[in-house]
Specification:
Radius of gyration: 15 Å
Shape: globular
Helix content: 40-55%
Strand content: 15-25%
Number of strands: 2
Largest sheet: 2 strands, parallel
Distance between the termini: 29 Å
Number of helices: 4
Strand order of the largest sheet: 1-2
Structural class: alpha+beta
Length: 92
């Protein structure tokens, strides 16, 4: 498992918060995240997924192109499967 992911799992456990980590690698981000969501949903029925969308104070076409609509595409895919994904804005 990734060292960074394990760090956050250990951090949660230190404060008595249940945590598990899942990692995946591939060329299609949405496809990989959908597979991970299916894996998690199989273990934890009726779970809710969370994602963030970067909000830039001063954006342009480059930042919009680089920071595409992954969260919205994933949300659509999961909703079509009956799963919930909440997108939280993250101002940068």
């Amino acid at each position: 498992m990734n060292e960074n992911l394990q760090y956050f799992i250990d951090y949660c456990h230190q404060y008595g918060i249940a945590a598990e980590g899942y990692a995946s690698f591939g060329t299609d981000t949405v496809e990989e995240l959908t597979k991970l969501a299916e894996k998690v949903n199989h273990k934890y029925a009726n779970c809710v997924f969370f994602s963030s969308k970067l909000i830039f104070e001063h954006d342009n076409w480059i930042t919009r192109m680089l920071h595409n609509e992954t969260a919205l595409t994933l949300q659509r895919n999961l909703h079509l499967q009956g799963k919930e994904l909440v997108i939280l804005p993250m101002k940068i």
